[in-house]
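Late entry, evening session. Most of the bench is empty. Finally got around to the prediction I had been postponing all week. Sequence below, unchanged from the version circulated by S.P.
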Amino acid sequence: MEYLAYISKTDLARKTHQVIRSVQRGQTVIIESHGQPEAAILDMPDYYILLAATRYHAQTPEIDLAAGLSAEALAGATAQERYDQVIAHYLAGAISLGRVAELLELTWADLRLRLHRLGVPLRFAPETADEALEDARIAEEWSGKTGK
């Protein structure tokens, strides 16, 4: 599937349900009028990621790289606040891609695809032994081997 689709305003009116389904499957739809792009429709996780990355680069927060990010630190946060915190910690290098996936409740593969598609930098390999151990722990939890 292509990640970008173009549709006229008229076709959007006729095919709204189909367009929304495509967006929910990860496609961004560009709405055109007279051949000129006027708006984009994307799903909420993509929107949250883009806004979080923009906020991080607009005003880089101070992040303790050694502290990581706990699920408890995100308790009570809105969806956007959760994404802001998690993406900021990831971009700062404080948490791994696997930890981001866990905290945002996305699969690692889905998250990786989204970040790549949206132009957010990817860090694949753990940079430290602790990161590698954390990635292994997360992978075990997701696969159900730890019994959690």
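Two things to note before I forget:
Strands lie at 4-8, 28-33, 36-41.
The mean pLDDT is 89.
Will write this up properly tomorrow.
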